[in-house]
Design a protein that fits this description.
Helix 1 packs antiparallel against helix 2 (about 35-50) and helix 4 packs across helix 5. A nine-stranded mixed β-sheet has the order 1-2-4-3-6-8-9-10-11, sandwiched between helices. A two-stranded parallel sheet has the order 5-7. The N and C termini lie far apart (about 45 Å). The protein has about 325 residues and is α/β, with parallel strands linked by helices. The protein is about 45% helix and about 15% strand. Strand 1 and strand 2 form a beta hairpin.
């Protein structure tokens, strides 16, 4: 497929997405006049359901993949294992509206360094469906439960020792948030965690959507109540910094100063709450390029394999 055709396809997809959102916004705002309960639930599920990544050619790991699946909270969770049995294991967790292929280059670099690598498609992403009474809603606890389920299955297939502890877990964006919930609430264990630009509170994205929907303050509160009813807990209970105080694992938190998706302050607060975490501010990588940047991957490799001093991760970013 030519670059010109890819660009045309992407533009067409973007236009359709905008038109669809405008139609949904009009429906929800009209719904608050007639049936506010339905409108609040519709807005809540819109917030909690990811959009599928557009189909197209993607880089694939050159390393041999062994696919497996586990029972997740809203359907089967697709996962893949790379590398040799007996090598120390690393788990890779992608971000919101992405999939396991976002880690393809890092998979090969880790396997080349003699690591067993596991990755997954989070519920509602890639090849992992999301089927519940709330449609395709996949709140953070659902994502976290899927990550924990993959970790348990990794022991069953011999990718992890009986103690179920990864050498490292590397996670991006909302996948990082879910990973830390899994680590602090659901038994996910690792010697170290590298977390790239993870939001620390679901209200960040919820409030952004409410502004896009142009809802009143009273309507926003109704939507928040509907979100919490679907989640089964308060959004405040998912705030990360208080949880990280008791996380007894080494951490590396990376965030690009020009990230327009997740504000830098979220990583700053996460780092302040996590006693064993190193925090590094990068620049010029935005939100998604953190995953694919060669220098960042070199830093992650260094972090996984070495008890390096605080300023020896291969890059020279600003200290936090």
């Amino acid at each position: 497929m030519s670059q010109k055709h890819l660009a045309k396809t992407k533009n067409s997809t973007n236009i359709r997405t905008i038109i669809s959102f405008l139609a949904i916004r009009s429906l929800i705002r009209a719904g608050f006049v007639v049936t506010p309960g339905w409108a609040a639930r519709r807005a809540a599920t819109l917030f909690l359901a990811s959009q599928r990544r557009p189909a197209g050619p993607r880089p694939q790991p050159a390393s041999h993949a062994t696919p497996f699946a586990v029972d997740g909270p809203v359907g089967p969770v697709a996962a893949w294992s790379y590398g040799r049995t007996g090598d120390p294991a690393v788990l890779l967790v992608h971000g919101w509206e992405d999939d396991h292929l976002s880690w393809a280059p890092l998979v090969d670099r880790l396997v080349a360094k003699s690591y067993r690598v596991l990755s997954l498609d989070l519920p509602g992403h890639g090849r992992s469906p999301a089927r519940s009474r709330h449609g395709r809603a996949t709140p953070i606890p659902v994502l976290a439960a899927a990550i924990a389920a993959v970790a348990r299955e990794a022991v069953a297939i011999g990718a992890l020792p009986e103690n179920g502890k990864f050498e490292a877990v590397i996670a991006h964006s909302l996948g990082g948030t879910a990973t830390l919930i899994a680590a602090t609430e659901m038994g996910l264990a690792a010697d170290r965690f590298a977390i790239l630009a993870a939001p620390n509170h679901p209200r960040l994205f919820a409030s952004a959507l409410m502004q896009m929907l142009k809802l009143t303050r009273a309507q926003v509160e109704q939507v928040y109540a509907a979100i919490e009813q679907i989640i089964g807990r308060s959004m405040d209970s998912l705030y990360l910094p208080p949880k990280l105080r008791d996380l007894d694992a080494a951490g590396l938190i990376l965030h690009s100063r020009d990230d327009r998706t997740v504000p830098l302050k979220h990583s700053q607060e996460n780092a302040a709450g996590w006693p064993r975490a190193e925090f590094r501010i990068l620049d010029g990588l935005g939100h998604r390029k953190l995953v694919s940047d060669n220098d960042v991957q070199a830093m992650l490799l260094h972090f996984v394999k070495s008890e390096a001093p605080a300023d020896a991760y291969g890059l020279r970013p600003d200290a936090a």
